[in-house]
Amino acid sequence: MIGVGFVVLLLLIGVMGFSPLFALREVRVEGAGILAVEQVVDVADAPMGRPLAQVSEREIAERVAALPPVAEAHVSRGLPDVVTIQVVEREPAFVLDTHPAPTLVDAEGFTFAEARETAGLVTATAPADPETLRGIAAVLRETGDLRVDRVEAHSPDSITLFLPEDRRVVVGSGEDVALKMKVARALLGATEARFIDVTAPENPSTR
């Protein structure tokens, strides 16, 4: 019985590995929003017509993960003839004012796609270096319900928030940002100052 079962198993492996009945005919994409499904399929370059057992999930996932908007890519094969690509896209933290079109930036300071829709996202004017962009993202994470109209930064140590009523908060770098924003919110509520500097949160200044 064991011998017969082993032979049957080998036959099944042979059929699935080489038979056109189990050849790849369809690629499905899940989770794409910023990316078009067609774009993911093109980059995936799945070997249509190849027996499913010979299709490398790892190679397809690596190609898709190389797309800038993709944080993670997972690939699975499904009988009889389908490969499914699950895409996890990067989450935008803010919009970088770039030419000719604004760019989405994630929490790690990674620029990854043209910003076609900017509703709910703050726009920043800054150099496109990762350290500065990471600092801006860190500051914006701590703003809470504080309304920020825009952000400017000339370097990682010169982040400034522009608020309604022509008020601004100079934050400096993204270090100690939780404390800086706690101090800034307290001063915004306690004074009518239009300029608040919390670069050194233990010794803030206003005017």
UniProtKB/TrEMBL annotation:
Cellular compartments per GO CC: plasma membrane
Coiled coil: none
Signal peptide annotation: none
Keyword terms of this UniProt record: Cell cycle, Cell division, Cell membrane, Membrane, Transmembrane, Transmembrane helix
Pfam families: POTRA_1 (PF08478)
Top-rank taxon: Bacteria
Location(s), subcellular: Membrane
Domain POTRA intervals: 22-90
BP GO annotations: cell division
Record's protein name: Cell division protein FtsQ
Species this chain originates from: Propioniferax innocua
